[in-house]
Amino acid sequence: MAIYESIVILDSLMPPKDIDxxxxxxxxxxxxxxxxxxxxxxxxxxxxxxxxxxxxYGFYVSIEFEGEGDIAKELQNDYNYNDKVLRYLTYxxxxxxxxxxxxxxxxxxxxxxxxPVTETKPEPPAEADKEAEKANAPAEQPEESTVEEAPSxxxxxx
Amino acid sequence: MIKMKRKRVCHFCETGTVYIDFKxxxxxxxxxxxxxxxxxxxxxxxxxxxxxxxxxxxxRARHLALIPFVADFTR
Lengths: 158, 75
What we know:
With 158 residues, chain A is of the alpha+beta class. Chain A contains 5 helices and 4 strands. Chain B: InterPro entries: Ribosomal_bS18, Ribosomal_bS18_sf.
């Protein structure tokens, strides 16, 4: 099972009720095809970079779901049938996006568990090692400083 | 004329970007010309791996009308 995301641009002149109804219809198609909805996001009304069907504004909706490849086809049938859909894009999460997702999960876990981790580590070493711990703590800072140094070295070359 | 040897570093490698998102058009605009063309690799300094990802992101953003295909360039 792969993760997909489908972004739809709807007519911004539609009443909010109709937009909700349309989103529900799309999500029901996904669930009917044994898909699992992960996230539904309404970006809201946005100005289009160029006119589509003589329209300047569009209402963006994104649906993230998990499922088999045939869902995308079913969705496409529905989008093509619906006049209110200006544009759509359904894409599969590639390895980079999945990696980014995993990294984000790890980061969120690290933030939530950072307090207990720091507590458990200092326990085994003796009191004398406390200074070493202090040294470890600012170890994160040098990463930033290297970034700052990079542009300065370039300036020297110039 | 002494040719300046300036090492160009890939912006995405520098910041440690794993995935280039097509949804934030502001970041993508940095790699487009005024007319909306993708800036070539030898000019922007982007590495091959990220340039491929960037091109895909730009094309998706264009399809969704986040970025213009052609920006009119009136003088």
